[in-house]
Design goal:
The chain is mainly alpha-helical. The protein has two domains: 5-200, Fumarase C, Chain B, domain 1, CATH 1.10.275; 207-408 and 423-513, Fumarase C, Chain A, domain 2. 55% of the residues lie in helices and 5% in strands. The chain has a three-stranded antiparallel beta sheet with strand order 4-6-7. It has a two-stranded parallel ribbon with strand order 1-2. Strands 3-5 form a two-stranded antiparallel ribbon. Helix 14 packs parallel to helix 16 and helix 17 (466-477) packs antiparallel against helix 19. The protein is elongated and about 90 Å long.
């Protein structure tokens, strides 16, 4: 576990801090200002709890049952019951990093002093995260409205010492045993605290923040792979000139074109489109690579803006205002986050689609301008990368299905009290799958482009650019072998995927080009 410490409550939480906690095991501390804010807000809740007037979440039931006033003698049971009843998830377990992200984001909101929980509740959540205890959260149970209810409920259940959780080694055990071993006392919930632990967009936001980080790396990776494909196809880099992109001033497009131009610097393979098989222009998948990847980059910029706004929010219902008022609201509705999660899935699908078209062009002897069929050693005896493209095509088709938006599919719940929901959790889950698929698609293109560049440099009498040579050498070092007779291909493709996913592709290119966008 990384011993980097993230302090909650002294200033705004950053996306890097969320990822550090979720993926790297960073430790968490509550700032004294956060503890004081928690105490102040709790005082307002205690004052309201002592009055006869019903207050939602403090002295009433929940959702469609909010019409019932709950007396003081039943309020602790009320808070326990909402956690137990809402911990109703089903299906496979959600990844550890997702659970840690949603718990940390919930803690961030608790520490804002807008939810009314006691400091010891927030501290218990920090302690659970710091000891590596991870509640078992299931795939299904959130509609992305009234918060990610079931996922957060399973986390709250662990704080109560109930349900199941993973230990630091990933072994699932009773949560009560894990808390006892860690010296953490189970939380006895009081007024509003059960509700406050459940009512946020934390799961979908955590997945959005991690997807944004992953996609930033993948957009750069896609530019590098596209540049190698352009080299292998003897394309022209003149279409990447900055002045051409300046007259259509989309920032992402310019960034992608600049990346490709850096990777292609010094190449002896570019610009031969007028030789043996003259072309006035390269195909769209090559010539328009910056336009497609650039549109995705601009989509990512918008998604990050939404994510940062949500990260600055304190989402709960009711919410404690600075003047002591406790007001109901609809800020838990996940629409802003759900829309950009869906939008990113569209961008990922289209980027994968154009990458697959370049791969297919590399393998087709009728369109590859002199490369051997399927980049095979002895075509006919060897099939080369024929089926690698099949795998890539299957992934692209899956990505297209994942691009169908979840956020337009509302289904009423809670006896029509919650009659419009965001489905943001579902949008986030499919985006995670799409990011994985995109990594594989880019890995296949890179593997094909690297082989094609090597084959081309043997026959063209010219060498690829220094960046391409560095990438190919690093890819081979990572275990993806070069041209030759047919062999068991899956390990090579897996190595190429890992090379992309880990950031090693970007690092190899940047060792020559310097920083890429």
């Amino acid at each position: 576990m990384n011993m980097h410490t993230v302090v909650v409550g002294s200033s705004g939480t950053t996306p890097k801090e969320v990822i550090a906690v979720a993926r790297d095991g960073a430790r968490i501390e509550l700032h004294p200002e956060a503890v004081e804010a928690l105490r102040t807000a709790r005082g307002f809740i205690d004052d309201l709890a002592a009055k006869p007037d019903p207050v939602y979440g403090v002295s009433t039931g929940f959702g469609a049952l909010a019409v019932r006033h709950i007396g003081p003698e039943l309020r602790a049971q009320l808070q326990r019951n909402i956690v137990r009843s809402h911990a109703a998830g089903m299906g496979p377990r959600v990844e550890r990093e997702v659970v840690r992200a949603l718990m940390f984001l919930r803690l961030k909101t608790l520490a804002s002093g807008r939810t009314g929980v006691r400091p010891e509740v927030a501290q218990a959540m920090a302690d659970v995260l710091n000891t590596g205890i991870t509640p078992v959260v299931h795939e299904y149970g959130s509609l992305g409205c009234s918060g990610d209810l079931a996922p957060l409920s399973h986390c709250a259940l662990t704080l109560m010492g109930e349900g199941e959780a993973e230990d630091r080694d990933g072994v699932v055990r009773p949560a009560g045993e894990l808390l006892a071993e860690a010296g953490i006392a189970p939380v006895e919930l009081r007024e509003k605290e059960g509700l406050a632990l459940l009512n946020g967009t934390d799961g979908m936001l955590g997945m959005l923040l991690m997807a944004c980080a992953d996609l930033a790396r993948l957009f750069t990776s896609a530019d590098i792979a596209a540049a190698l494909s352009l080299e292998a196809l003897l394309g022209t880099d003149r279409v990447l000139a900055p002045e051409l992109h300046a007259i259509r001033p989309h920032p992402g497009q310019a960034a992608s074109a600049a990346n490709m131009l850096k990777v292609l610097a010094g190449s002896g393979l570019t610009g031969h489109h007028q030789d043996d098989a003259p072309r006035v222009q390269d195909a769209y998948s090559v010539r328009c690579a910056p336009q497609v990847a650039g549109a995705g980059r601009d989509t990512l910029t918008h998604a990050r803006t939404v994510a940062e706004r949500e990260l600055a929010a304190a989402v709960d219902n009711p919410v404690v205002l600075p003047d002591g008022r406790v007001e109901s609201n609809g800020n838990f509705h996940g629409a802003p986050v759900a829309y950009v999660l869906d939008f990113l899935a569209v961008a990922a699908a289209d980027l994968a689609s154009v990458a697959e078209r370049r791969t297919d062009r590399l393998l087709d002897k009728n369109r590859s301008h002199g490369l051997p069929p399927f980049l095979a050693h002895d075509a006919g005896v060897d099939s080369g990368l024929m089926i690698a493209q099949y795998t890539q095509a299957a992934l692209v088709s899956e990505l297209k299905r994942l691009a169908v938006p979840a956020s337009v599919d509302s289904i009423p719940s809670s006896a029509m009290q919650e009659d419009h929901v965001s489905m943001g959790w579902s949008a986030a889950r499919k985006l995670r799958t799409a990011v994985d698929g995109l990594s594989r698609v880019i890995g296949v293109e890179l593997y094909a482009a690297a082989r094609a560049v090597e084959l081309r440099s043997r026959t063209a009498g010219a060498a690829p650019g220094e960046a391409a040579r560095a990438v190919v050498a690093a890819l081979r070092e990572a275990g993806a072998e070069g041209p030759g007779e047919d062999r068991f291909l899956a390990p090579d493709l897996g190595a190429a995927e890992a090379f992309v996913r880990s950031g090693a592709l970007v690092a190899a290119a940047e060792s020559v080009t310097g920083p890429l966008a």
